[in-house]
Write a structure and sequence with these properties.
Distance between the termini: 25 Å
Strand content: 15-25%
CATH class: Alpha Beta
Number of domains: 1
Strand order of the largest sheet: 2-1-3-12-11-4-5-10-8-9
Number of strands: 12
Shape: globular
Largest sheet: 10 strands, mixed
Bound molecules: 3-isopropylmalic acid, manganese (II) ion
Radius of gyration: 20 Å
Helix content: 40-55%
Order of helices and strands: EHEHHEHEEEEHEHEHEHEEHHH
Length: about 350
């Protein structure tokens, strides 16, 4: 009997359901070819459900989600719901409660994609950001004092635990070793100003580095990193950083790889259930138009296959995506592809079964 993976699917809001449908199409095609089954179970969390029922993410759902082999997410964010409610109540809650402590974000320029950087080709842009995903400024520690008065004070603290920092750094070293490309791991921090948080990061980084003599342990300040992403992206192989810096630099990373239409990520709990998603938002204005680019979602699907141990299937999907970007679509942004959302999905699925 062939192996069956149980996948929880949260299509979410806006264009989320459209891109997820194309991702599932490609995953289904490739599963048949490589002889495994994918059992998708749909969950309707998102803005629509919240507006109807006031329910964001019940605890019973969290319990249920823990039983899956992986999770596949579309997008969270609805124009009629105040910003922050769904992001915190669904996306961040899932990351935190399921202890998905790594946010893995590859930045890779695929063939045929118009790179905004002059003279940079796929040879220059191929690195991965390992973002800490459950601590830092995202824990929500802090508060107001004298709110609404002229003396108001707002404090928001970055929480960094030795355990949280170390497990992230260890993951990054292991990932860099397994990737075996340039064998260079760069810690992205701000040791010159954030002298507590990044002192802990720096000490931990160089301590763990001793166990990896074959990996070049490198350091750069976050502000300099943004400069070098633009000027010398070829310097990077794997980057490890905290939650907030990782959030910021991966949006820049997405732009140098062509845009949100192609950028995917994984929220990983190496000991539990992990969740894969396109890193862009729900793009509500394109909802239902069949113009949004599903490739980021398809790439998230490829990352999910790799995580499940289906490396050959994952590679096939990535190669098919590269063929689509290299030969079949004109642009990545919604409405610029020269093909519709469903056509891109159909084509990627077809190529995935033929190459
Ligand atoms: C991301 C997003 C989220 C984050 C938001 C939607 C809470 O920007 O996945 O990068 O800040 O992590
Ligand atoms: Mn972000």
């Amino acid at each position: 009997m062939s192996k069956t993976y149980h996948i929880a699917v949260i299509p979410g809001d806006g264009t989320g359901p459209e891109v997820v449908a194309e991702g599932m199409k490609v995953l289904h095609a490739v599963s048949q070819r490589f002889g495994f089954e994918l059992d998708f179970q749909m969950f309707d969390f998102g803005g629509e459900r919240f507006l109807k029922t006031e329910e964001i993410l019940p605890d019973s759902a969290l319990k249920e989600l823990r039983e899956f082999d992986a999770m596949y997410l579309g997008a969270i964010g609805h124009p009629d719901v105040k910003p922050g409610i769904l992001e915190k109540g669904i996306l961040l809650k899932l990351r935190f409660e399921l202890d998905q402590y790594i946010n893995l974000r590859p930045v890779k320029l695929y063939p045929g994609i118009d790179c905004p950087l002059k003279n940079k080709t796929p040879d220059h842009i191929d690195f991965v950001v390992v973002r800490e995903n459950t601590e830092g400024l995202y824990v929500g520690s802090g508060g107001f004092f004298k709110k609404g008065t002229p003396d108001e004070i707002a404090v928001q603290e970055s929480v960094n635990t030795r355990k949280g920092v170390e497990r992230c750094i260890r993951y990054a070293f292991e990932y860099c070793k397994k990737r075996n490309r340039a064998n260079k791991l760069t810690l992205c921090g701000k040791t010159n100003v954030l002298t507590f948080a990044f002192n802990l990061w720096e000490r931990t980084f160089y301590e763990v580095a001793k166990e990896y003599p074959d990996i070049n342990a490198d350091y750069a300040h976050v502000d300099a990193i943004t400069m070098w992403f633009v000027k010398n992206p070829e310097w990077f192989d794997v980057i490890v950083t905290d939650n907030m810096f990782g959030d910021i630099i991966t949006d820049l990373g997405a732009m140098i790889q062509g845009g949100m239409g192609i950028a995917a990520g994984g929220n990983i709990n190496p000991e539990g259930v992990s969740m894969f998603e396109p890193i862009g938002g729900s793009a509500p204005k394109y909802t239902g138009k069949n113009t949004i680019n599903p490739l980021a979602s398809i790439c998230a699907g490829s990352m999910m296959l790799e995580h499940l141990g289906e490396d050959a299937a994952a590679k096939t999907v990535e190669t098919a995506v590269m063929e689509v970007t290299g030969k079949h679509i004109k642009g990545l942004a919604a409405g610029t592809m020269g093909l519709s959302t469903t056509e891109v999905g159909d084509l990627t699925a077809k190529i995935s079964t033929e190459i």
